[in-house]
Amino acid sequence: FIFYHLCISLIWTIVCLGAHGRFAQKLLNDLFSNYTNALRPVEDTDHIINVTLQITLSQIIDMDERNQILTTYLWIRQVWNDAYLTWKKEDYDGLDTIRIPSSYVWRPDIVLYNSADDEFSSSMETNVVLRNDGQVMWDQPAITKSSCSVDVAFFPFDVQQCHLTFGSWTHNGNQMDLFNALDSADLADFVPNVEWEVLGMPAKKNVILYGCCSDPYPDITFTLHLKRRASFYIFNLLIPCMMISFLAPLGFYLPADSGEKVSLGVTVLLALTVFQLLVAESMPPSESVPLIGKYYIATMTMVTASTALTIFIMNIHHCGPEARPVPEWAERFILNYLARICFVYEVGENCLEVTSSGKQPLSQEESEATSANGANPRGTNWDVNGQAWGGRVEDNGAGASLNVEFIASSYQDQRAAQLRIGEWRKVAKVMDRFFMWLFFIMAFFMSILILGKAI
């Protein structure tokens, strides 16, 4: 009994499908026997045909900032009523819908106004769905290339707005009118993009009067709001630049006799130039400088200033014996005030071990004099035979006195020159430490400001 009913149901389904197939063919012949797709399907030419437009954003294929072209994959649905494609479904065995090629029926000439496609046609020819009340629904997938004005002022933390404007190319508002199916594009089937985050895509209807014509032309503009995902640029452009920029103040900490102070600044400057070129290659040529470009320029300016100051300080450090004494204002302000703030100790001392004795090391002349006096502490004179003899030699007394005075004067001059050299070196060391902390603070605040835009 069950097998019998299954057989009856199968036979009935086959008979119904065959009947629908015969009635569909008959319906197609009846509908298009006197039909033309060259004219608007209205009974009166004064009537307006209403077209409902719905856009579904499926994917953002590419965003070319340099050429300012947005490539998207869209599903476009257009719905309108055709006055000549109606029938009574009772006359065709209850058949209420059929699907036929879209080239058979009249189609609205809706195009993307701001298209940037070379071929101007990247859509697929699909079928339309006809209902017995004359409604025509045409779903069409399309890959569109639209012009988009890209503002890179806050790159890579920028938000872009790209407009997609759809409208009829030849029909004015008195012949064809456009309506929104939804308040915004459908994003339910959107495939997430790795670089851009879609914030929304609202739709708005506009009626524009062009200078060439007196009739109104309606259009529907979809505004795509995009926010750039900045993680890639933070880890590949910003953080390396920050790390390099913190190397510039360390050039002040290098010893002046190392010979690498200027080389470090030039190397950092070259590295920042490479990063600047990488950013410039991907940005459109415009008057608006990107935020990351401003950061690079500020950092390069800081590195250039630090290198120039390093050369100036090295010149102070290598002042020779002929240098003038340190001015009183520099001694008071730099050696006394700034030295305590920057924790600078005497030249030759480190910050961990400070000599408790205030004695200065003996110079070569003092060592020789000490060794000489150590051989004869009481000033006793000896003859060539090793016998001591007393008394003074009156004839050589005046010459010896002159020699002693000359040696003492030379020693004092040399000692004063060494003191001047030491003071200038301490001035250079204090300035090195001061500018090191100053540029560290500048690099830190610039990094905080650039990262604050990402929050």
Automatic annotation (TrEMBL):
InterPro entries documented for this protein: Neur_chan_lig-bd, Neur_chan_lig-bd_sf, Neur_channel, Neuro-gated_channel_TM_sf, Neuro_actylchol_rec, Neurotrans-gated_channel_TM, Neurotransmitter_ion_chnl_CS, Nicotinic_acetylcholine_rcpt
Keyword Membrane: yes
Localization in the cell: Synaptic cell membrane
Gene Ontology MF terms in the entry: acetylcholine-gated monoatomic cation-selective channel activity; transmembrane signaling receptor activity
Coiled coil residues, start to end: none
Domain called Neurotransmitter-gated ion-channel transmembrane: residue spans: 237-450
Domain Neurotransmitter-gated ion-channel ligand-binding: 25-229
TM regions (residue ranges): 232-255, 262-283, 295-314, 434-452
Keywords on record: Cell membrane, Disulfide bond, Glycoprotein, Ion channel, Ion transport, Ligand-gated ion channel, Membrane, Receptor, Signal, Synapse, Transmembrane, Transmembrane helix, Transport
Region feature Disordered, mapped onto this chain: 358-381
Family annotation (Pfam families): Neur_chan_LBD, Neur_chan_memb
Signal sequence segment: 1-18
Superkingdom in the source lineage: Eukaryota
Membrane topology per record: Multi-pass membrane protein
Entry's Gene Ontology cellular component terms: postsynaptic membrane
NCBIfam families on file: LIC (TIGR00860)
Similarity remark: Belongs to the ligand-gated ion channel (TC 1.A.9) family.
Protein name: Neuronal acetylcholine receptor subunit alpha-9-like
